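W.,

You were right to be curious about this one. When I first looked at the sequence I had no strong expectations either way, so I just let the prediction run and decided to look at it fresh. Below is the sequence, 152 residues in total, followed by the output.
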Amino acid sequence: MKLSSLVNKDCSKAAVLFNSKKRILEYISELAHTQLPEVSQHAILDALMTREKLGSTGIGKGIAIPHGRLAGIDHVVTMVLVSEQAIPFEAIDKRPVDIFVALIVPDGDNQHHLKTLATIADRLKDKAFCKQLRQAKTDDELFSVIQNESSN
């Protein structure tokens, strides 16, 4: 599984400008709502916040993988956002975060969810790939980087 198979163009956002964890999660929920119009933006934000309360999804090196589970959906929505400036996110290494790969997954599909998280985390270990993500200045450039990724 590749990141490129999980993300569509409408869910790739470069050079976003937010200054807080709460605001970036609100934006992620807005974006996810466009892909899941049958689910309220509030329900999506609540799922993301519920997961964050268990511990930050900031995995270090300026990267976070916010995710939440929702009942009543039948597919995963994956979003890639790159912040123009890194924001405090309570990451495990205490560094601010500028790359966000967010997931909204069907409740109960644990195996697929864990496999997807592992794929994303593994892909984001590639420093060159992360550098390309950070250098993208437009949504189109970011989507192109994602689509042209190569496996390690």
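Here's what jumped out at me. Residues 18 and 24 are 6 Å apart (CA to CA). And, maybe more interesting for your project: The beta strands are 7-16, 58-60, 63-64, 67-70, 77-87, 97-106.

Coffee later to discuss?

I.
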